[in-house]
Design a protein that fits this description.
The chain has 475 residues and is of the alpha/beta class. The chain has helices spanning 18-34, 38-73, 84-96, 117-123, 143-147, 169-188, 220-234, 236-244, 263-273, 289-298, 335-343, 365-368, 384-394, 407-419, 428-437, 442-474, and strands at 2-7, 74-79, 104-109, 129-137, 158-164, 189-195, 202-209, 251-256, 277-280, 303-307, 324-325, 328-329, 352-357, 375-378. Helix 13 packs parallel to helix 15 (428-437). The N and C termini lie far apart (70 Å). It binds adenosine-5'-triphosphate. This is Metalloprotease m41 ftsh, putative.
């Protein structure tokens, strides 16, 4: 089903400045008024007195006519504010309306789903085209919505969708298309939520295309174990099992390892793999423990909560007097506040909490104890096996590359490429940077990797040398 948007014409451009136009009009009225005699003024006043009643009469007549036209010529469906379909329709409208238009018409062609318009017209002999009228009733704004701090302003008002004719089928198809649209969005994208700038509500911050787990390279066995653990946790049977045994239904993961080894990428990939939204909690910007608690209470049950670089926040529990760490002021909420929202008595259940860190040894043991962190996943520098997989992924024929050699030769190239990369010395992000420069030719990548690795290792040892010198100077 394809939809087209028709928008009104562009507004005409003003010839004069609005101020000077207003002034001229006012002067003109004043001059004319001063030339009237007393009877003419009397008639004008009488007309002015009648105007409100005339206006009321016209409005009433319009309302009656409109409801009669609606009744006779329009088929309508009303969707209450709290219904999930309401949100789907509003999301479709937001995604398809032209920018800067206050009104537009959505047109749908029935029976052409997923095809380009020309192909669709060929296939459907008599395309049915519908214009829909979508009206929202602002006084029906659900109180539950307006009281909900997590409400992001999408949907919530009663919608009436109408089309010409006596059958509501086209409207139903339009609503179904809107629902399919939102389902597709969740299928292909991960919605990332962050707190708004006032810290009052969660708002969608970005819509990222799903990243497949195959594109995050690390120990394959560990990856399988992690996936199995999450799958098991999200299984409704597990929830029942936990609840019947009075165990808190929560799961926490710690992804640790050097910078650029895929901790954030893995979190995003997990959200995509399990069709979950991702809620980013930035501890340094949370003002108080009460705010942190409110934030966690507003997060829905099935989602991924991501606390990145948790080591940069606290190193121990005594944080009540706002000390300074590495020249940076420490956050206002305390570690006890965080521990409390993670698994305190009133904490919510059913989410996946992922914390990431470069320095696991710096974390307070209370934060990493089972119940708060149930599985630790190490993401390190790239292994030879992973670099081979990365090579094959980068030059995959599925991405549209056309090479004059077959897959066996590609595999040989990948093996030769990987053999030049020492195990556990180069970060995956650095290797990705190398590929970005040689995406046109796998042969170039193989012939140049040896020299590049040498340079990278030399840079690394220079950096380590600098760190030692700096530390010695500091002592
Ligand atoms: N294991 C990996 N597999 C594939 N790509 C990776 C991997 N690690 C990093 N990358 C790539 O490197 C870039 C940075 O990765 P990411 O931000 O996930 O790393 P990180 O470990 O979270 O880094 P930091 O600790 O600095 O936040 C991304 O573009 C990602 O595609």
């Amino acid at each position: 089903m394809a939809f087209y948007i028709h928008a009104g014409g562009a507004a005409s451009r003003p010839l004069l400045e609005p101020c000077s136009q207003g002034y001229l009009l006012f002067k003109d009225v004043l001059t004319r008024f001063s030339k009237l005699d007393i009877t003419q003024i009397g008639s004008l006043v009488a007309i002015a007195g009648v105007l409100p009643s005339a206006w009321r009469f016209l409005r009433h007549a319009w309302d009656e006519t409109y409801s009669w036209v609606r009744h006779c010529f329009l088929a309508s469906v009303t969707i209450p504010g709290g219904d999930p379909l309401n949100r789907s329709v509003v999301e479709w409208i937001l995604a398809n309306r032209p920018r800067n238009y206050r009104s537009f018409t959505g047109l749908t062609e029935v029976g052409n789903s997923g095809m380009d318009r020309a192909a669709a017209l060929k296939k459907t002999r008599h395309p049915i085209r519908n214009a829909f009228l979508v009206e929202r009733s602002s006084d029906s704004h659900s109180i539950a919505m307006s009281n909900n701090p997590g409400y992001d302003g999408i949907g919530g008002e009663e919608l009436t969708i109408s089309c010409f004719g006596w059958s509501v089928e086209p409207v139903k198809r339009f609503i179904k298309a809107c629902r399919d649209y939102t389902e597709t969005q969740t299928q292909f994208f991960v919605i990332i939520y962050s707190r708004d700038r006032y810290g009052l509500a969660w708002q969608p911050k970005a819509r990222k295309p799903i990243r497949h787990l195959d594109t995050v390279h690390f120990d394959n066995q560990l990856k399988q174990d992690l996936l199995a653990d999450i799958r098991n946790y999200l299984d409704p049977k597990t929830q029942k099992r936990y609840q019947t045994r009075s165990m808190p239904y929560r799961r926490g993961y710690l992804f640790y390892g050097p910078p650029g080894t895929g901790k954030s990428s893995l979190s995003l990939a997990i959200a995509g793999e399990f069709g979950l939204d991702l809620y980013e909690v930035k501890i340094p910007s949370v003002a108080t423990d009460a705010d942190l608690e409110q934030m966690f209470q507003d997060i829905p049950p099935r989602c991924v909560v991501l606390l990145e670089d948790i080591d940069a926040v606290w190193v121990d529990r005594s944080n009540s007097s706002k000390p300074v760490q590495d020249g940076q002021p420490m956050p206002n909420c305390t570690l006890s506040g965080l521990l409390n929202v993670l698994d305190g008595v009133g904490s919510q259940e059913g989410r996946i909490v992922i914390m990431t860190t470069n320095r696991p040894e710096a974390l307070d043991s209370a934060l990493t104890r089972p119940g708060r962190i149930d599985m630790k996943v190490y993401l390190g520098n790239i292994s030879q096996k992973s670099s081979e997989e990365m090579f094959l992924r980068m030059f995959s024929p599925d991405l549209g590359f056309k090479f004059s050699f077959d897959m066996d030769e590609m595999r040989d190239l990948a093996t030769s490429f990987a053999s030049q990369i020492p195990d556990d010395k180069i970060t995956p992000s650095a290797l990705q940077g190398f590929f970005q420069q040689h995406l046109d030719s796998p042969h170039d990548a193989v012939s140049l990797i040896g020299g590049w690795v040498k340079e990278e290792l030399a840079k690394k040892s220079d950096k380590e040398f600098e760190v030692i010198i700096n530390n010695e100077n500091a002592v």
